[in-house]
Design a protein that fits this description.
By secondary structure, the chain is mainly β. The strands form five sheets. Strands 1-5-6 form a three-stranded antiparallel sheet. A three-stranded antiparallel sheet has the order 2-3-4, with no helix packed on it. It is 10% helix and 27% strand. It folds into two domains: 77 residues, Ribbon (Cysteine Rich Protein); 61 residues, Cysteine Rich Protein (Ribbon), CATH 2.10.110. The structure holds zinc ion (4 copies). The site of one zinc ion (ZN) has 7 residues, from strand 10.
């Protein structure tokens, strides 16, 4: 499962008596008056950059996007990943910046990622099954499995 994420970047001032924090970009100590806070980490203003165009993300409307291990600006995120696609459960379009769940080639709204028979929601690490392109919980999968071919994925 890959989670697309939109994260806010905040500029925080460093209190002089505070122990300097390590920068998540260069691993150096941050001794500037201001630093950036994003993804629960601290960064030099120069070190938080888009993986594609190298622009400084602290200056760009203060939002960044992550996908796998990439940190991207809004523009590059859009041009790389664009519209997410249609939700395999409700068939409605998923806007590019919405968090999605993925299973094989399918994408789902977070709210739609549930067993399509009993509507039980899945959590990260839960086991789910794909059968005839329907997501099923283990219980429903087991009872369906008795009749017909199997098409399973567990995660
Ligand atoms: Zn740094
Ligand atoms: Zn960029
Ligand atoms: Zn949906
Ligand atoms: Zn179920």
């Amino acid at each position: 499962m890959v989670l697309d994420k939109e994260e806010s970047v905040s500029l925080v001032s460093v209190r002089s008596r505070e122990k300097p924090r390590g920068c998540a970009g260069c691993n150096g100590k941050i001794r500037d008056r201001f630093m950036l806070q994003a993804l629960d980490l601290y960064w030099h203003e120069d070190c938080l950059k888009c993986a594609c165009c190298d622009c400084r993300l602290g200056q760009l409307g203060s939002t960044l996007y992550t996908r796998a291990n990439l940190i991207l600006c809004r523009r590059d995120y859009l041009s790389l990943f664009g519209v997410t696609g249609n939700c395999a459960a409700c068939s409605k379009l998923i806007p590019a910046f919405e968090m999605v769940m993925r299973a094989r080639d399918n994408v789902y709204h977070l709210d739609c990622f549930a067993c399509q028979l009993c509507r039980q929601r899945f959590h990260v690490g839960d086991t789910f099954f794909l059968r005839n392109n329907m997501i099923l919980c283990q219980l429903d999968y087991e009872s369906c499995r008795l009749n017909g071919s199997t098409d399973m994925q567990s995660q």
